[in-house]
Each structure stands twice: as structure tokens, then as C-alpha cells.
Amino acid sequence: MGLIRLLIIAALIYIAWRVFKNLLSRSQQADSPAASQQRQELMRKCAQCGIHVPDHEAFSHSGKHFCSQEHQRLYLDHHDH
């Protein structure tokens, strides 16, 4: 009877360990690259030089986006004439 009881306890510990491991891997998947892809920021292409910058760093004017105020000024000076 002692051996059967030991096997049952070992099986229960194994099952509990697998359930815990499964739950842990699911919580880590929430922080995986797939989840971070959903949070990626929109990138804007500079109308002057073509470099891409995050939307919150871009300077915008009349639907055009720029990587810096200098490129915005250069573009507007060149295209306003």
C-alpha cells in the first residue's frame, strides 16, 4: 500500500507542477514580442530626408511630417516659393 500511495502523491505533484508551468508560460506570453507588436508606435517618414521617426517625435505641417524642425524649415522654404 505504501508504494501505491507514493505513486499517487508523485503523480499529483507532477500534475500540479505541469499546471503551474502552463500558467506561468501563459503569463509570460502576454509580455512576448507578439504582444509588444500590438503596442508599436506609428512611424512617420520625413518629407525632407526620408528617415522614419516615431509619431510622437515627428514635426508636422499641412499633412507633411519631418524628423526635425530644421528639415521642416528647409522643406517649407524650398516648396513655398
Task: Describe the secondary-structure layout.
Elements: H1 2-29, H2 33-38, E1 43-45, E2 52-54, E3 59-61, E4 64-66, H3 69-79
Antiparallel strand pairs: 1-2, 3-4
Characterise this structure.
With 81 residues, this protein is an alpha+beta fold. The protein has a domain at 44-81. 56% of the residues lie in helices and 15% in strands. It has 3 helices and 4 strands; from the N terminus they run H-H-E-E-E-E-H. The strands form 2 sheets. A two-stranded antiparallel sheet has the order 1-2. Strands 3-4 form a two-stranded antiparallel ribbon. The radius of gyration is 28 Å and the shape is rod-shaped. The N and C termini lie far apart (96 Å). The model has no long low-confidence stretch (mean pLDDT 87).
